[in-house]
Amino acid sequence: MATLSDIGVAAAINILSAFAFFLAFAILRIQPVNDRVYFPKWYTKGLRCSPLANGAFASKFLNLDFRSYARFLNWMPAALRMPEPELIDHAGLDSAVYLRIYLLGLKIFVPIALLAFTIMVPVNWTNNNLEHSGLTFSDIDKLSISNIPNGSDRYWTHLVMAYAFTFWTCYVLKREYEIVAAMRLHFLASEQRRPDQFTVLVRNIPPDPDESVSELVEHFFLVNHPDHYLSHQVVYNANKLSGLVKEKKKIKNWLDYYQNKYERNPSKRPFLKTGFLGLWGDSVDAVDFYTAKIERLSRDISTETEKITNNPKSIMPAAFVSFKTRWGAAVCAQTQQCRNPTTWLTECAPEPRDLYWENLAIPFVFLTIRRLIVAVAFFFLTFFFMIPIAIVQSLANIESIEKTLPFLKPIIEVKFIKSFIQGFLPGIALKIFLIFLPTILMIMSKFEGFISLSSLERRSASRYYFFQFINVFLGSIITGTAFQQLNHFIHQSTNEIPKTIGASIPMKATFFITYIMVDGWAGVAAEILRLKPLIIYHLKNFFLVKTEKDREEAMDPGTLGFNTGEPQIQLYFLLGLVYAVVTPILLPFIIVFFGLSYVVFRHQIINVYNQEYESAAAFWPDVHLRIIVALIVSQLLLMGLLSTKEAASSTPLLITLPVLTIWFHRFCKERYEPAFVRYPLQEAMMKDTLERAREPNLNLKGFFQNAYMHPVFKSVDEDDVDVAMEEWEVEPSLVATKRTSKRSTPFSSKHGGSTLSLPEANNESSKPENA
């Protein structure tokens, strides 16, 4: 069993690791040569100049101001100095609200920890149940509920604390939901005009034998939204063309590399082998080889562009429809357009930056099949991953290692090595197993067909959280304490499972403490060091960078990564709520994680990460739901644990807590969630009215002209996409109907045809065709 000294060794290792990362960061960040790695956001905004441009040669690469080294922690107060409204203007509402998740953790767990250490820890510590039990136990166990004898009246303390923690958590959640909802509505009301505010995505457009998709969309919206329809942009399947453009860009980078190499040494032409990874094959001139490749790809791009332009099958049954007002777009997006509820499906269009264009080419009818396939695949991924988790957890069991590998016993029994194995190795091993998981889950989400980057990240985050709940939380508890009795565990009744898991929770406190320190403390400190981006930037800068644009691409830091970061945060909410009543000693470790993470990620959001899209904090309902789930899980597991402690008089009173928590969630869902899924018509009308008063001559058609054009047609390489640009830069025009009857087009086209009022159109359609 791990003791407090083992935890102390693990804590010392992780604290020293975190301090080493912070010290390395403090030194590296002030070196002029690394300025673009640690402050790329300011370069992107054009508000920072490279220190390499001025000064003596040595000072261009090395900071010679030794006083700056003494202020190695000054980045912390600097990260906290920017007020939240300024942070929203600088980094967007998504980033500001993401940081509030860490603040939410502090708001919940700091008061809970104070209450737990004031009341519950003395109640647990002053018992001597473990000393008389004859079992092996640690000092941590004496601080937990395990030290209370069965049937003791002291369990009433834990019951009252469970109610107090639940009510406090719900109060903080409600307050935060209210604040974030108000921030979202204020942001939407005050932000600048964006194309997505006026645009609706229409999917599953039914085929028509007489008209093209573009003509059909125009006529449908002229009839059903005559006062508000403005223009539309049909969706093209340009996935193959996009792949060719990406491949050409990659080949161009290799060509630049070899050209730079040749320019540095003109006396020697660079050569390469054409075989696998350049290890074998014919030796050819590298510059000529990649030049020929680019010429071939340019011809393929031109051919594919012409094919998309002339082939009607390249047009998908979907379109972006723009309206004259936000009010008109909101009404269209939130209403049923047709008597057949499966056609003419409308939703608010994501902002252009948020679109994942590849999935717009997936036929709508295939989405259900794809999601079923992914659901089955995710089930097997989740539950078969339990096998490596079990192996990892065996590392925390010294007895199992000594039994399996007896020749290692003399080494393992060395105090420092034993503390290292129990206090550090299991957490880092589990972290390594989870490295590739986010990529797998994102591939699954893309296969499902979600059309926006924000929805892809939210779906991946949901799956990542569920995976961690099953494998990291439940898997660690079950395999770490009951794996030897797995046959007995499988064959017991369903009612016994909460009891088994509940009884196992106190015994796994040590593992989760080490996991928090490895992943939460050292992991967050490693985040700010940015060692991998630092190495990649300098390699690219030395070998590939030729122009200033190349340098900007080399320093691109990417985005915050909601799909991986938020589920990790939620795991700490789960651990904190579960162990708050059972083993409160975990709470200080979790509080340190939330406080450290808030400072680190605030610095990263201000100075490093780009904002790939803006969803106006649309993810907050998911955050709220997952904390509610963690709260209910903690209540059910506490019920299971107390039922094994013969606390018959207090256990039944816990049944009320999940019921009250579910009722609270339904209240918040009905009261606050509509602000995150629908755009209030009142807000839309107010925004439209103010805009018309300020800009009465606003030309919205010009504003929308290329907003929802596929980015491959906006390529800077004009030689490849001249045809496409000529074709798509023209605003979608209204054309005369090709139908034999005008019953669905009561208004004339811009290009001729008589204008009919709706009654006249109905009269015309009722006449015999031979009349």
Quantity of strands, as a count:
6
Write down the overall mean pLDDT: 81
- What does the main sheet amount to? 4 strands, antiparallel
Structural class by SSE content: mainly alpha
Low-confidence stretches: 480-489, 716-735, 740-771
- Rg, rounded, reads 31 Å
Q: Give me the side-by-side strand order of the main sheet.
A: 2-5-1-6
Strand content: under 5%
Total helical elements: 36
Shape: globular
The N- and C-terminal alpha carbons lie at a distance of: 96 Å
Q: What percent of the residues sit in helical stretches (DSSP H or I)?
A: 55-70%
Write up what this structure looks like:
There is one protein chain. This protein is mainly alpha-helical and 771 residues long. The protein has a four-stranded antiparallel beta sheet with strand order 2-5-1-6. The protein has a two-stranded antiparallel ribbon with strand order 3-4. Helix 15 (367-384) packs antiparallel against helix 21 (437-448), helix 24 packs across helix 30 and helix 25 packs parallel to helix 29 (586-607). The longest helix is centred in the N-terminal third of the chain and has 36 residues, at 155-190. Residues 480-489, 716-735 and 740-771 have low confidence and may be disordered. Belongs to the CSC1 (TC 1.A.17) family. Residues 743-765 have a biased composition (Polar residues). Keywords: Calcium, Ion channel, Ion transport, Membrane, Transmembrane, Transmembrane helix, Transport. Residues 735-771 are annotated as: Disordered.
